[in-house]
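hi! just following up on the protien thing from before. the input was this:
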Amino acid sequence: MSLQSNIRSLFQRIIISDMKIVSRFYCTPNDENIDEEQKKPIDPSKDRTKVIPVETSIRYLQSKAYEETYGGKPVWTLYRRNHKGGFAPRKTRKSCVRGGIISTGNPCPICRDEYLVLDHRNTKLLQQFISQYTGQILDAFQTGICQRKQKELLVAIEKAWDQGNLTYDVPFREYDYSLYNKTAH
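and the predicted 3d structure came back as:
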């Protein structure tokens, strides 16, 4: 009895799987078998398929809206990534945007604001990611930027340095050597 039921369920599984394969090959795209994900409209706040020109980004950095949002601080200072456990992960996430849509609940500072475009001409934005004390590019662990945007940032800063849009400046410190240069008389 149990052997017959096992054989019967096995045959039913095979027949159902064959029917699924056959229906996949013979369905037309106009059928009602289209995924529900394709039917759902994309939330405009998460849509990143629209390309923002660099000139618009530069104007945004000089606007009142940018000042109200970030208030003279770098864009990454107010950002805090959610993570489990007591310590933040050493590496940031690979990317916040997948398929043109923000796929994480807490995207990095660059992915969050669509008007922040990483380009070698956008020097006001690039200067926020360079240390004012050493002149080095800040680490992604410190700024919280995803790995994809960190690579774009590195390329944009190097290109800006090569083209002369950014200068490689380290502040000059003056020392008073009179305390050290005492001559014994």
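The chain has a mean pLDDT of 82.
Residues 129 and 138 are 6 Å apart (CA to CA).
cheers
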